[in-house]
Amino acid sequence: TAFAPYVRQAIGLDATPAMLAQAKILSEAKSLGNVVWQKGNVYDLPYPSATFNIVVCRFAFHHFEAPDAAFAEMVRVAAPQGRIVLCDAVASDDPAKAAAFNAMERWRDPSTVEFRTLDYFKDLFEDANLGIPTIRRFQVPYLAHDLVAQSFPANDDRTGLLRLIEESLENDALAMNAFKDGDGIHIAFQSVVMSAVKP
Q1: d(C-alpha 149, C-alpha 145), whole Å
Q2: 3-class SS at 128?
Q3: Are β-strands 52-58 and 35-39 bridged in parallel, bridged antiparallel, or unpaired?
Q4: Mean pLDDT for each 10-residue chunk of the chain (199 residues)?
Q5: 10-14 and 179-181 strand pairing
Q6: Exposed, middle or buried by CB within 10 Å (0-12, 13-18, 19+), for 89?
Q7: What pTM was estimated for this model as a whole?
Q8: φ/ψ (deg, to 5) at 122
Q9: Distance between CA atoms of 160 and 142, rounded to whole angstroms?
Q10: 121 phi and psi angles, rounded to 5 deg
Q11: Is-contact 117 188, C-beta < 8 A?
């Protein structure tokens, strides 16, 4: 829906009917008449090659078993001089912190496969002959107790999940810039927007 005011038509795709239903409610609430929602497979997009001027994937790559295949499909359906945009949180370059972060996220959201590093995403662009992408870093902050309350952790174990995040304060073990003040424990997902133009 964010693109709708700036394009002739926006098409959103998801594999989950419940997500599509929520998206339709949102676009109808905003009276967006140029948005279409479709069910589909990110590894086999239901569109001809070179169809779109902009191809975007936002906060989904950590759910993909084969992110390279999904990215290849994004590039395929982009028209020449079309822009490919990838947005997701990233794991630390420190292997121990990356492993701890991914373990926490799989506990918090069992549908998580893996958060990858920034270098991993840069390689996707370069391996697709898109060159070095432009990169914008940003953070998605939370209070730990709010994040846990909004989550659906494995075995519904919110107490254990919150304890794990609290323990990460020492040495910032999850690489989430954790700190504590009077409001509680603050954490932030380290995130990026990467984009490049298809030759």
Answers
A1: 6
A2: coil
A3: unpaired
A4: 92 95 94 95 97 97 98 98 98 98 98 98 98 98 98 96 96 97 98 98
A5: unpaired
A6: buried
A7: 0.94
A8: -60, -40
A9: 18
A10: -65, -40
A11: no
